[in-house]
Specification:
Length: about 450
């Protein structure tokens, strides 16, 4: 059954990668893969996998009646808690960004970007993305920056190139902030890393992970970009300057409020996102209450929701379900154990996990690592291996960098990449040809900087 699950995952992966060749939307392939893997897992495993034995015992003791089917349903619902949190977060962020875009709020930024040079514009976009993702997170930042790119670049191929670098920059920027990437946040909340260790020790490798591919690409970029032209009906803007500015300000502040809300309440990030969406929803309803229905509909959340790309959300659902099934079957735990035995070097293990996170999601990989390796107290250190596993030890620091930036190697290797792929309809193979080698070069360059600093 293990091999059947892997075969289905690989076939589904190929379906996503060859979307344009087989003429099947990637959301369909992802949903089929995720649901089939869970169906096969539930029907094919008549004995609880070893790594789930303790959970099954605890579940039975709590009144689960020892039923495998009920236990597997319980495990699926457990994963759906996390998956639905991500989906609602994504839906809320996309709605807020789309609402700001409907009010042309991003003109506050785009009107201040005067250059049409591809090289200069690429540097501006990547630097903005890098620092925004540290303050917001890489997923939200990617959604915001793609909306900006649509205002700045008309040609699809050129915009895809910029979008690919947005993925690289967002993941690099998220790696050095405790709220910038979900895996870094996990290590921060789990007690493996402190805020100061994350920021001070990882910012330089993360900058290098962005600058190296950006520098290489700068030598290849030539010419200028053509900006899109907009036909405004009746010769006037759809919104006033006040409306644009207030919606932009509330939208950005709402996105910035999400990590603050999480820190204060310890509730999942999607709750803060929903609160921000509710506030901007109320604001826009009051702003446009006196307008006629036709104009109001285009500027309301109800109208904006019709433009949200639902297939992107379903694609996310399928991908996360598929990875969760592999996690339940024990494939990711096996991979973590194998890496420890085969490599027996903290830096090589982290580098491998980073590259592996480009194929499967980095969240379960980091979760598996956190479960495999305990934080070692300072007074229990006996050798270099145990020293690396202490709080703020090099294993955890380097894991945060590798898991955060390694996913850029493939477009479905990170939440930011999946979101950009869905919104911009970027082809998997195109990204593989144009961006992957650049991302890998940046990944190893940043890793090299970290090793020079601490190894």
């Amino acid at each position: 059954m293990d091999y059947i699950l892997l075969a289905v995952f690989v076939l589904g992966y190929l379906g996503i990668a060859l979307e344009h060749k087989i003429k099947v939307d990637k959301a369909a392939s992802a949903l089929l893969t995720g649901t089939l893997l869970w169906g096969l897992f539930v029907t094919g495993y008549h004995v609880v996998p070893g790594h789930l034995a303790d959970m099954f015992s605890a579940f039975s003791a709590e009144g689960g009646h020892g039923s495998l089917s009920v236990f597997y349903e319980h495990r699926l619902l457990h994963h759906m808690q996390e998956i639905s949190s991500i989906l609602f977060f994504l839906l809320g962020a996309m709605t807020i960004v789309e609402l700001v875009d409907a009010h042309e709020g991003f003109r506050v930024i785009t009107d201040r970007i005067n250059t049409n040079s591809k090289v200069k514009l690429m540097w501006i976009i990547c630097i903005l993305t890098f620092f925004f993702s540290a303050v917001l997170d890489n997923l939200t930042t990617s959604i915001v920056m793609i909306s900006l790119l649509r205002k700045l670049i008309d040609d699809k191929e050129t915009r895809w190139l910029f979008a690919g670098m947005v993925v690289v920059s967002a993941n690099a920027g998220g790696a050095w902030s405790p709220i910038g990437d979900i895996t870094t946040t996990m290590l921060w909340i789990g007690g493996q890393l402190s805020t100061s260790a994350i920021i001070v020790n990882l910012i330089l490798p993360s900058i290098v992970a962005m600058i190296v591919p950006l520098g290489i690409l700068s030598f290849r970029l030539k010419g200028t970009v053509d900006r899109p032209t907009y036909n405004i009906e009746h010769g006037s803007d759809p919104t006033t300057s006040f409306e644009r500015n207030i919606v932009f300000a509330v939208g950005v502040l709402g996105l910035l409020f999400v990590p603050v809300f999480k820190t204060i309440t310890h509730l999942p990030p999607f709750m803060g996102m929903m609160l921000s969406l509710g506030v901007i929803w109320l604001l826009t309803e009051r702003l446009h209450y006196s307008k006629n229905h036709e104009h109001k509909a285009q500027l309301s959340v109800i109208g904006v929701l019709r433009k949200i790309d639902t297939s992107s959300v379903l694609f996310f659902l399928g991908i996360l379900l598929a990875v969760a099934a592999l996690q339940e079957a024990g494939h990711l735990v096996f991979a973590a154990s194998y890496l420890r035995e085969a490599l027996n070097n903290v830096y090589l293990i982290d580098l491998s996990i980073g590259l592996l996170s480009a194929i499967v999601d980095n969240v379960p990989l980091v979760a598996a690592s956190m479960g495999m390796y305990d934080v070692i107290p300072i007074d229990a250190v006996t050798d270099d291996w145990t020293a690396a596993l202490t709080k703020d030890g090099h294993f955890w620091q380097f894991l945060a960098y590798c898991a955060g930036t390694g996913g850029s190697a493939l477009i479905i290797g990170s939440a930011a990449g999946v979101a950009v792929m869905g919104i911009e309809r970027i082809d998997f193979i195109w990204y593989l040809k144009k961006i992957s080698l650049l991302a890998i070069a940046g990944y190893f360059a940043g890793a090299g900087v970290y090793l020079l600093m601490f190894a």
